[in-house]
Amino acid sequence: MTTRRAVILMLDSVGIGGAEDADQFGDAGADTLGHIAQQCGGLKIPNLVSLGLAKAAKASTGRPLPIGMQPPAQVQLPSKYGFMRELSRGKDTSSGHWEMAGAPVNFEWGYFPPHEPSFPAELIQKICAEAHLPGILGNKAASGTVIIEELGEAHIQTGKPICYTSADSVFQIAAHETYFGLERLYEVCEIAFKHVKPYHIARVIARPFTGEHKGEFTRTQNRHDYSVKPPQSTVLDALKNAGGQVISVGKIADIFANQGITKSVKASGLKELWDVTLYEAQHAPDFSLVFTNFVDFDMVYGHRRDVTGYAKGLEYFDSRLPELAAQLQENDVVFITADHGCDPTYTGTDHTREHVPVLMFGKHVTPQFIGGRDTYADLGQTIADYFHLPPLQVGKSFLDK
Questions:
Q1: Residues 86-110, buried b or exposed e (16+ Cβ, 10 A)?
Q2: Pair 16, 61: CB distance under 8 Å
Q3: DSSP secondary-structure letter at 89?
């Protein structure tokens, strides 16, 4: 019997050029990968180039990707490459992930305004009353690391959690793991998740941290996202229901509200995410999907507008690809993609509406330029096709016929 296993490497926010409707989102001219390469004077990503990333980027923007000369690639496997357009109305994490799994978002998310106070007084009163809180700190849009530095000491002194939002459809709560307590933070987030539902907010995010004083605070890997469920069944549900294994690495399980997940493994940071992905991919049984979100590209580099860090992260990601390629079995396939852009050279700190790359490689993949796809759901449809699952409601497969 033929063994079938697939891996999705989700490069969170690695867009490859503004979408046709980017101007409607205030993102005309955004190009995450291209602008990073341009500002850094090139990128050393030979394995991604070998798999077709530079060609996909050129097809997306009409311009050569300014990465410079590349060292020899260690990954020489055949690949399909192209780019995907987003159907969903947003440019957020949930919409991007759900659409590529076959469930585009055709409604508008709710958002909190960036100015202080961001949250309606009635909402905060309800959360504080049910959670028995003395009040909150923050109440504005902010970078998570910045607001923890700003208010961490006051949080420890008052016992008030730090509540903030961003350009995403989120309500985020930061609290100290020791002084406030991790389980207490999760409890407050569950209460908040219940009360933000009328505002059509996609996620409530627990942001635990440690440290004693300003300059010492560090966020931990015990982040937890409380997410609404996808609007319809996804390829993850289909594979699980057919008896397959869906292994989440990083925050994938949170994004899908644990729908269609059979195993969830926590990991944070590019190195640990790669280490765990390699282990899970090597030990995954037949009829399984390993799905990893490399969140640092978005959270650590994109939103903080750290161009140099983003470039180094991409080069590190590329350096680990040979390890995965070396352990692939005969019929294993790997997909590399993204969920949106987050151009670190662009104004503000928001995601950017962009095309995303889609690469597919494996020992027996037929090399092919698959063009510009009309929806991220083509990825999910291809995975359904690969596993011989019933077709999804949206998307066209680009699997070999």
A1: bbbbbbbbbbbbbbbbbbbbeeebe
A2: yes
A3: S
- Per-residue model confidence (pLDDT) at position 401: 59
For residue 33, the one-letter residue type is L
Residues 6+ apart with CB under 8 A from 129: none
Residue closest to 90 by CA, chosen among 168, 29, 161, 150:
168
Q: Return left, alpha or beta for 330; rule: phi > 0 is left, psi -120 to 50 is alpha, else beta.
A: alpha
Q: For residue 79, give Cα distances in angstroms to 213, 235, 362.
A: 50, 22, 7
Check if the beta carbon of residue 30 is closer than 8 Å to that of residue 22: yes
CA distance linking residue 104 with residue 215, whole number of Å: 41
pLDDT band at 108 (very low <50, low <70, confident <90, very high): confident
What totals of helices (H) and strands (E) does the chain contain, helices first?
A: 13, 14
Q: Encoding tokens for residue 27?
A: 């993102």
Q: Tokens representing 224?
A: 């937890």
Residue 390 tokens, joined = 């019933």
One-letter identity of residue 150? E
Maximum mean pLDDT: which of 114-118, 223-227, 331-335: 331-335
| 3-class secondary-structure state, position 205 | strand
HSE value, Cβ hemisphere, 13 Å, CA-based, for 325: 24
Tell me the pLDDT band of 400, cut-offs 50, 70 and 90.
Answer: confident
Instruction: Give the predicted TM-score (pTM) of the model.
Output: 0.91
Tokens encoding 26: 């205030």
Instruction: State the first-to-last Cα distance of the chain, in angstroms, to the nearest integer.
Output: 19
Asked if residue 230 has a cis previous peptide bond (ω within 30° of 0), the answer is: no
